[in-house]
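Design review, sub-item: ligand-bound model
Attendees: FS, YL, KQ
YL presented the inputs for the calcium ion complex:
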Amino acid sequence: MQLRLLPIAVLALCGSPCSATEKPNILVILADDVGWGDAGCYGATKVRTPNIDRLAREGIRFEDGHASAAVCTPTRYSLITGQYSWRKNAVGLNKGVATGMSPLLIPTQTGTAPGLLKRAGYKTAAIGKWHLGFGLAEPDYNGDLRPGPLEVGFDTFFGLPATNDRMPTVFVRDHRVQGLDPNDPIRCSYDQSVAKKQGLGAWAAGRSRIGWASGGKSAWWKDTEIADTLKRECVGFFERNKNNRFFLLYTPHNVHAPAIPHPRFAGTSGLGNRADMLQELDACIGEVLGALDRLNLTKNTLVIYTSDNGAYATDEKGHKPNGPFRGKKSQLWEGGHRVPFIVRWPDRINPGVSGDLVSTIDVPATICAAAGVVPSNADLSDSFNLLPAMLGDKNATRRDQLVVMSGNGHFALRFGNLKYIPDLSVADGWEAGKKKKQTNARQPALFDLKKDPGESNNLAAEQPDKLAHLASRLKEITTVNERNAPPRRQPDNLQNGSGKK
Ligand code: CA
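KQ shared the predicted structure:
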């Protein structure tokens, strides 16, 4: 099922010999909680997204793109490691999301896309929301935030530790909280009894947040400034690295709640704060793409724009953030994980629209292939190389199956046009609890997404053979995980070959 493009194949597809200097720069933009329908190029008429639309016009717009999970942390893990997050037995990876006090969730010996690209000579950076933890046991926000992004392949990091609605409300640069006054240390907990004992508050940087904290006031961000700050960091990274090969993972916090746009965007959509924040996202993307133009880097920069999960809103005064799809963020319905997916590389990729099944988990293998990097069999093992199809190779293998995970850690399987949900009573993700209590029976479902994109016609009773086949496929794929793994005979660093690294 894996297709790894060998370097010789890259040569064959170049049209002319590709020298090392023709390797592309790589920019991956992972938006936050932006739905499939959140752009003009995906049919939206009430929001203005000229810059995302420009990317689509100049590249390939995929109509069947999916986040690997319906919430933030697991999708982000997969986008960096090329592995399904649920193969790891950790909260935030096999269900839920990371808190602001989570340890680093990516084992440092993991083969990652930034690590592989760095070894191939790329300057690598992550700028934006991290939400994958720091430290071995928990982050030390008053000291060294190690291990973190720099220990899994990034040369540099700037951004939010978790989410814009979670403590602590500070920016981290590389291993340190930026602008922290040592006389006002940060204390933070996600345990209410600890918070009570330590006198921690739920209020920071002007509003209530998830978790409890105190201190660090000199380092607090302003919600209205986050988008501009991240965008400036991206432009600065391009300027410093215009003569290098670079990989930037830009992860804006737009449009995660609380939706607080900069005042110059407030009210611009006429639909509400979230849609205003979407237009702010588009403008930031415009400035980042504009910097590539100005530095004459556009033609040989591979840009991928996608989102970490579907939108949490289903209707904003007639705007449909998840387009025609059922459900929303955290859910197994398409609205939970069907996301925008656009790829642009003017030097190599012809513009168009594609119906291929693609996922955020495919980003690592695809960008490594574009850079001529061939991962070992252990690295990026769930990631499918989309590059041959993107380059127009008519014989390219297409992804034919994909597992997606809900916020409550349940699976659905996409197989061709069919989608299998083992238990409908948990399909509503974080909102499934009440429904689940109403019945103890599993209610399997089978939908034909080609005929029924809104997932309203359950074919489970009509097609028991297909149902059984997909159930068996899902079991086969998901059985390989830490919880079910036999005892290991070798330590991690030998077993996955990372002792060589
Ligand atoms: Ca998200």
